[in-house]
UniProtKB/TrEMBL annotation:
Gene3D superfamilies: NAD(P)-binding Rossmann-like Domain. The keyword Hydrolase does not apply. Residues 6-192 form the Ketoreductase domain. This is SDR family oxidoreductase. It is an enzyme of class 1 (oxidoreductase). InterPro entries: KR_dom, NAD(P)-bd_dom_sf, Sc_DH/Rdtase_CS, SDR_fam. Belongs to the short-chain dehydrogenases/reductases (SDR) family. Keywords: Oxidoreductase. GO terms for molecular function: oxidoreductase activity, acting on the CH-OH group of donors, NAD or NADP as acceptor. Its EC number is 1.-.-.-. It comes from the Bacteria.
Amino acid sequence: MAVKNKVVIVTGASSGIGRATAKLLGESGAKVVLAARNEDKLQEAVAEIKEKGGEAAYKVTDVSKREEVKALVDFAISEYGKIDVIFNNAGLMPNAPLSELKNSEWDEMIDVNLKGVLNGIEAVLPHFIKQKSGHVISTSSVAGLNTYLGAGVYCATKHGVKALMEVLRKESANEKMNVRTTTLYLGAFRTELATRITNKAIKERIEFLYDTIGADPMIVAEAVKFAIDLPEEVSMNEITLYPTAQL
Ligand SMILES: NC(=O)c1ccc[n+]([C@@H]2O[C@H](COP(=O)([O-])OP(=O)(O)OC[C@H]3O[C@@H](n4cnc5c(N)ncnc54)[C@H](OP(=O)(O)O)[C@@H]3O)[C@@H](O)[C@H]2O)c1
């Protein structure tokens, strides 16, 4: 089954990659449920999809809270009757050297970037197992494949997402769940990700990177749509996208 009529949850849908993906999928005939914390931005994004004739709804959700993610999946099922795809995309990147001991930022990255993905998997898996189909898509990063100065905790969360998704793929095959998995390893895309960085030098460096070579998040949306559109018997397990000019 292609994108059309699939019910897709997108987390981190209030801006950047999640918003672009929700828009493209909505315009392509999916029934999209947008999730994030900022209600005004979610309302705006849903209105934009509906204006183009798409079907979309939103639910304010903090992905670090297990019960809220379960409620999000219940909401999608009550609105549209089923759930086919979850795009675990919410994340933040307040990078700083470990020596700055910004432990509340460490906790938040672990809770959102890693635990948020796990919460998404936990919430959809019983439904996917029952219906013997489903697709889990999660946003890692090139920081899930490499390590960078100032990105110790961010890299740890994104390597964690890689490990979780790889094991989910294997266990799905082993247990005949028929769940497809796709992990995104992304280089620099022009989004609001740098706004949460509190280390001035790192913030300026990332903003400069986005301003000079950052790619359009709609390209990620196209890749996600492609992965969903593939025949059910194949899973595009990994997608790595760098701007051509990025080292
Ligand atoms: N942009 C890049 O270059 C790049 C590269 C590699 C990987 N990534 C990854 O791509 C994903 C999307 O980021 P982006 O670049 O699109 O940045 P963004 O524009 O800052 O979007 C981040 C999204 O995550 C949401 N979010 C943050 N904390 C949340 C929480 N506790 N619960 C629910 N939603 C939450 C934000 O919404 P609210 O604030 O409204 O909750 C927002 O919608 C992240 O996982 C990021 O690590 C980005």
